[in-house]
Amino acid sequence: MTSLRTRERLVQRLREEGVSDEIVLNVIRTTPRHIFVDEALSHRAYEDTALPIGFNQTLSQPYTVARMTELLLQNGAPKKVLEVGSGSGYQTAVLAQLVPSVFTVERIGPLQEKAKSRMKLLGLDNVKFLHTDGGMGWPEKGPFDAIMVTAAPEHIPEALIDQLTIGGRMVIPVGADKQYLTIVDRTSAGVEIERVEPARFVPLLAGIR
Fold this sequence. Notes:
alpha/beta, two-stranded antiparallel ribbon, globular, 7-stranded mixed β-sheet, single chain, 6 helices, 28% helix
C-alpha cells in the first residue's frame, strides 16, 4: 500500500501525464500521502485520484498537486508562499519541502487542525497557519512571492493579486461550470493572465466554520 514500488508507479504515471519537474516528482514520491486521508481510504492514497476528506472537501489528485507546484516553481523557487486552502495539508507539505516559508489559510477549522498535526508529524516547521476566509488571503503577512489557491473562485480575487510581489506568480483554478487552471503573473506593467488547462476543484467559499 505504501511501498516504494507503489509510489514509483504513481510518479511514472505523472510523468506520462506531462509533469516533468523531477524535483517536484521526487517530493511527490517521498511524501506519505496515506497520512492525509482517513485510514479507511489509505489503500487508495497512491492512486492518481481525488479523495474525500470530509466537510465536502477533497484531497486533490496527485497530478493536480504536482502540476500546480511545477507551474508555481517554473521561474525558480519563491521564498515566501501563500496557500489558500490548507485542506488536508498534503499540498502544504509538498510546498513546505520546496520553499523556505509557507503561509496557509483555511476556512474550516477542524481540517486545519488536522493539517497542523500532520506538519508536526513530518517535522515541517516552516508553515504558518491562519483560520480565516481564504478569498481575503493573509494581507498582514504579505506581500508573497507566490500564491497557490486550491479552490475555485468564479473570478480571480483582487485581494490576492494585491498580495503578490512584483514578479510574483499565482496559480489558481478559476470558473464555475467550466474551470481552468490559470497562471497570474504580476509585473511592473500590470497583470498577465494565462489559462493553462481545464480543472475541477471545489468552489472557493466565503466565511469560516
